Amino acid sequence: MTRYPQVAFVVVASALLHVEAVDAQPRRPDEGGTVVSLGQPPRWLPTAGVVTGVQSGIGDRAAVSEVRLGAYTELASRVLGLGGVHGEIYGGSLDTRGTGGVRLRVASPFLRIAAGTDYSFRTEQWRPIVSLVQPVRRGGLFRDGTVLRFDLLGGAEPAFLVGVETPVLRRVPIGKTRARRDYVPLRVKPAPPRSMMIADRALREVMDSARSAARNVRWLTVPWVDHTGAGGAASDKAVVKRLEELRASLDAIGGDVTVPAVERESRRYHDALDLAFSMAVAAGNARPGVPSPSGRRVAEQARQVLLEEVLLPYDRLLGQNKKDDTTIPFVTLARGAFLRWLHVSSGVAPDAMAPTLEVFSALLEITELLRAEAHREWGSARNVWLPLQLALRPEQYDSQGELDELLTRATREPFREGNSVSYIINEQFQWQLSRTIRAAEDYHVLWIHDFRGYDAQGHPDEMSFRHVLRSYYTAMTARVREYDRTGRFPTYLIMLDQFFYEARKARLWMSLLEDPMHHRVDLGADYAAWEDSLAVAQRELLDAVNSSALLTAQRRQYGEEWLRKLVKVHVNITNTSDPTFWSWGLVTGFPVPDTWTRDHRKVAFYDISEEDPNRGEAILTGAGVGEHYANLSWEDRSLLVRGPAALALKGAARQLLETHGITGDRVPAVLQSRALPDGYAERVERAGTDGGRRLRAAILQNGTGYSDKQITVAKALLYTLMPPGSVIKIPDSLWNGTFWGSAL
Questions:
Q1: Which of 360, 413, 650, 730 has the most beta carbons within 10 angstroms of its beta carbon?
Q2: If DSSP codes are grouped into helix, strand and coil, which group holds residue 439?
């Protein structure tokens, strides 16, 4: 009988331990945890497949089935997928007989074709093989990189085979690293009912006036003034004609020419809306031409619904292709929101609700009309921007605070107080980067597009060598020597786009940083001194590790593999080659893989946390790691940012890893999201009284490929809303395309 309480205790204790394990945050490596990283892409990519088909012989046919195992390696750039070698071994059946063999093909993931030779163990003969590969949809047949493969074999026994081929044993989940669509779907099924027609003639005339003013607002905000055809005099005349049409339209309207045209037409538009809603609310009893307070209140609510449900959601898609481009999905929600407010909170009389809803529906139709006109002019949904002036009066965006609030709503990235920002001139960047690596106590992230293995002459890159030796080795050795006192070792992370990783042969340094205590580099006889310096740094790091009493004890506790994963730089090669993602939207008339779109962000940050707004720093830069970024051939600027705004970078780095399959508890502990603690705002405010200029700031980013474009949306908002007298500094003409020139 005494056993029952013991059993009950064990069950309860196990349950408690289970609950704690589920609720616990991932552990840092120095606490016995681990860091999951993408690592470097292998040179050989394994595949597996199953096929069926028909083989023709002399006078008969036979059913064929095969199971295949293969591996592919790229001969040129793995990212471009122009051509490589694919070898495979197969086995199966030919009717009731066994069959098998090997194949060697030259394959092009970009062209989706392959050709080579097949050797059959059964016949002991070679025969040619031609293959066609088709992913069917973005991400592959099953969204896991699986493709359809068609094979045609020649020789005395020709065969036609159809099957599937899938990537296997990959650290990065093929078929899931990019957006599932190369467009934003806007089609609504079933189609919503048509808007109600305004019955009152006088009310229709007022809305006609609002429509003409809204058209002028759009023309003035982002006019289409691009050249046409091949350029030359005829193309110039088309631009001039467009400007003359706009001028004629404005001259016909008249008004105070001392007031900017956009503001003049915007006020005419809003006055018409106020009058239209006043007439609708009064149900025929309104004073002619005089808006009423109740009508203005309803009109203001209509503008707010239009802004929140239509304009901002649609404009957030600027820069992205939209299939079945329309505002209907947003209009449907807007009409429902306004209808609910009209019945619950408006105070509008029941007999006035129908005409009021008619006016709101007409407002939504104006918005859709402007979208359709802009699409026709620009020829692409990517460049359609609906002016926010359709919902905002000039006095609602004429201050910094109002613009900041609109930017926050448009980009969904808040402005944060208490930041300091300073310039880093080109010559300082490499030193500043080294400083941040050596200063990191909890973690350091280098999110860069270029970490050069070799320079333009084919020699090992000296600047990269210096960062490996004097930044990373120096930092790691110093932190190990402090380990018995601090119990902390920083998590060092590098995120490097595969295109530049391959092009710059960055594997040279990444392999060393991944295994800094044991890997040996071969730089050639001319660089024996560099090799000696690295060997000395390795010995110093190993001596520091072996001299640490705490590391020695933890090594016995957690194992040798834990130690290797602690004292290292965790390399993440991102945007790895995945030919199953492709689109017709990049090049007219030809499908291009997403691997041609690159992550060009250049960011470094360390120790940024939710606990302390003053810890850590971030560098937003235009440079990379390499010799040519540190001489007169490169000129760029960087920003050094300290403060709460830098938290956006931590979230963006976490999101990047999540899109590559590192999710949930597998995200490194130092990048896990945490709630802001009590008193965080007070700490930010106190920091502003300690001297120095403290700024409001937000850090925005454009996602790679078909992801969201925060910066694009923010630029469009600023270019089209900044009031007269504002100063916009645009230092680089590279970013001034036709759309931006029109908006300016």
A1: 360
A2: helix
Dihedral sign (CA 664, 670, 671, 677): positive
From the centroid of its chain, how far is CA 75?
29
Q: Integer distance in angstroms from the first to the last C-alpha of the chain? A: 86
Contact by Cβ (8 Å): 148, 134: yes
Distances (CA, A) of 653 to 416, 601, 673: 19, 11, 11
pLDDT tens-digit readout, 330-344: 999 999 999 999 999
φ, ψ dihedrals at 83, nearest 5°: 180, 140
DSSP for 564-629, please give it. Answer: HHHSSEEEEEES---TT-EEEEEETTEEEEGGGS-----EEEES--SS-TTS-EEEE-S--BSGGG
Could you give the CA distance from residue 123 to residue 127 in angstroms, rounded to a whole number?
Answer: 10
Contact status, residue 333 vs residue 312, Cβ threshold 8 Å: no
Distance CA 542, CA 563 (A): 11
Q: Highest-confidence range of 201-210, 474-483, 497-506, by mean pLDDT?
A: 474-483
What pLDDT, in 10s, does the model give residues 570-579? 999 998 888 8
Q: In this predicted model, what pLDDT tens digit does every residue of 65-79 receive, in sequence order?
A: 999 999 999 987 778
Distance CA 197, CA 193 (A): 12
With helix as H, strand as E and coil as C, how does 455-496 read?
Answer: CCCCCECHHHHHHHHHHHHHHHHHHHHCHHHHCCCCEEEEEE
Is the entire prediction scored with pTM above 0.70?
yes
Tell me how many degrees the CA angle 655-475-489 measures, rounded to the nearest 5: 60
